[in-house]
């Protein structure tokens, strides 16, 4: 059964076209104008060190904006750094936060592995660490407190299930030859979205679906464009594209059109995120369906940071709250459309 989020996406796609077409630059510190408004009357304001993976996509920009605005609203002092998609930059930023003796460290890790050493340093300094958006693999689970983020494996499953609807609506018959644009190699969303998609494909479509080519586009439009061009050279009979995010799908559309093919028709496209430009492409019939990944983690993160600072027990994994993010993006992209 499609979730509310997928149903919204599919409904927008149906209306948009025939068929279902329609995650180190230091930004410094910022403090809320009303200092301490989120940290309790008379208490010391919380200082949060946050290391962002980068600014590779529209989703990531929305995520950074959410963290910054939520910290300001809560009255926290925020030390924000952009790792520019380099793990060494994030590790350096985290070490700087340790030296600065911030109250809590949060970060969205570039990749899954390679964090034990710096996390042990944070633990030795008695600074709790909260993961946002992406998970890590560690030798000791006590090295971080919790993860605030989405279930990427389930997003992959939902992408496969919604592709079933896309194929049905398009009246597709015969073999399904899938090109997969992967996210950053070693990153949790790339690993888990691919895993979830393959689970459904192997269980329900072993005889008719096949991923004929798969490569990282690094979650960027430029990467999606470049890799898709290579895909079309080596596999001109691709009829489905599964992109791990909207930005890569949008980049891929440029290469599909340059090859004289129609995105959303000659090559059916399913992606993940739900950013404004993705809805624009879907309204034009170039993306067939999008699975939501909500980037607005800021308010939840600030709630968790407060609890952690106060020594309260928190869940090991805190799922992203469902929101109207996708619908808001759709309304911004399509101001005359009613939902």
UniProtKB/TrEMBL annotation:
- SUPFAM superfamilies annotated for this entry? Periplasmic binding protein-like I (SSF53822)
InterPro entries from the UniProt entry = Peripla_BP_I, SBP_2_dom, TAT_signal
Which residues constitute the signal peptide according to the record?
1-24
Q: Supply the alphabetized keyword list.
A: Signal, Sugar transport, Transport
> What stretch or stretches form a coiled coil here?
none
The answer to whether UniProt assigns keyword Transport to this entry is yes
Indicate where this protein is primarily found. other
Record domain Periplasmic binding protein: where: 50-312
- Where is this gene product found? Cell envelope
Q: Name one GO cellular component term.
A: cell envelope
What is a single molecular function from GO for this protein?
carbohydrate binding
Which family is this sequence assigned to?
Answer: Belongs to the bacterial solute-binding protein 2 family.
Q: Which protein are we looking at?
A: Simple sugar transport system substrate-binding protein
The record lists the lineage as: Bacteria, Bacillati, Actinomycetota, Actinomycetes, Kitasatosporales
